[in-house]
Amino acid sequence: MEEFSQLAGLKPSTWTPESLCEKVADIFHIQITEVALLELRGQLLHFIFPPELKAAGAIPVSSSAVAARTAQEQKAEIFNHFTQVNHFSVFELVKMGDSGLDAQIIQKLMSAPIINSQGKVAGVIQISRKAPRLAIAGADFTPADLKKLESVAHSLAKLWSKGRVAAHSAAQI
After folding, report:
1. How far apart are CA 46 and CA 114, in angstroms?
2. Which of 59, 105, 119, 65 is nearest to 87 (CA)?
């Protein structure tokens, strides 16, 4: 899998949520601010990337949030009209670094579960396209994009199983 080889290209000593998400952004040709990585701890999904969302709160798996539904159903999904989807928009209000994307909102989103070797959800990865309005948010995500994201999630699960991603995220909390 090409996606795994790109992620595997990271040296183990440099694996961090940021370096992994940077690679994922490269794979999908998006900005790093358009990648979110969440880790399931108990019954809550915690953002481990972007760092600005770590303090913004956690998402109960029992909620109707898209990330929660991804974890509950263990199913990847595409939302090419995301503003029409009932979701937790509070996270979109958090300023992301110096990206200059404050006026940008998530217009399109893909969400995939990260499922560990025991078949349990370890986290969720989300890829978005942000823009002030849908018409300029770029191409719709396709079923091929979703397959690629599922492949990336599978690769992340392998890294997670080695404990490296979780260890780095726990050390940064």
Report:
1. 13
2. 65
Q: Global pTM? A: 0.83
Contact 23, 171 (CB under 8 A): no
Work out the angle at residue 148's Cα, subtended by the Cα atoms of residues 20 and 122, and round it to the nearest 5 degrees. 55
- 15-63 pLDDT tens trace: 788 988 999 999 999 999 899 999 999 999 999 999 888 887 889 999 9
Written as one letter, the residue type at 11 is K
Estimate the crossing angle of helix 143-161 against helix 17-28, to 10 degrees. 160
| Per-residue pLDDT tens digits for 74-96 | 999 999 998 877 645 544 444 44
The answer to whether 146 touches 106, Cβ cutoff 8 Å, is no
Reading across the β-sheet that carries 121-131, which strands appear in turn?
58-60, 44-49, 35-41, 121-131, 105-115, 77-79
Give the CATH number of domain 2-171.
Answer: 3.30.450.40
Asked if 164 and 61 touch (Cβ cutoff 8 Å), the reply is: no
Domain boundaries, the chain: 2-171
Peptide bond into 17 cis (omega under 30): no
| Contact in structure between 125 and 143 (CB atoms under 8 Å) | no
